[in-house]
Amino acid sequence: MLRVAVAIQIPSSELMETFVRASGPGGQNVNKVSTAVELRFDVGRSTVLPEAVRQRLRTLAGKRLTQDDVLVITESEHRTQEGNRAAARARLDELVAQAEIVPKRRRASKPTLGSKLRRLTEKAERGQTKKGRGRPRDE
Prior knowledge:
Shape: elongated
Low-confidence stretches: none
Largest sheet: 3 strands, antiparallel
Distance between the termini: 87 Å
Order of helices and strands: EEEHEHEHH
Number of domains: 1
CATH class: Alpha Beta
Strand order of the largest sheet: 3-4-5
Number of strands: 5
Structural class: alpha+beta
Number of helices: 4
CATH topology: Double Stranded RNA Binding Domain
CATH architecture: 2-Layer Sandwich
């Protein structure tokens, strides 16, 4: 059971973990031991995610979401399976927690009268500065 928030708890039955050989440095150990974890979570078939959270999670997942609506998190930072498993679950926890936050709706606002006047006076001053850069006229 992965507790994401007070309302959302992902059961272990919905998570699929596969251990693979990690790439990169590590000497002989990297060639012998499968320590990297590939954590899969089926977003579309999950029974615990509300629809709004599911949609935001799809947006946040980006390239980590497959065409089958499965979220894939790969972790190989640690040298042990347990460390990588914990790190992958923590990343999933973080993603779902972010998806749970409802973004505030933007309210349209108009610029204040003071800001309009400041912009226009600044614009006029800038125009005068540029006008003074030309060649002097004979009058």
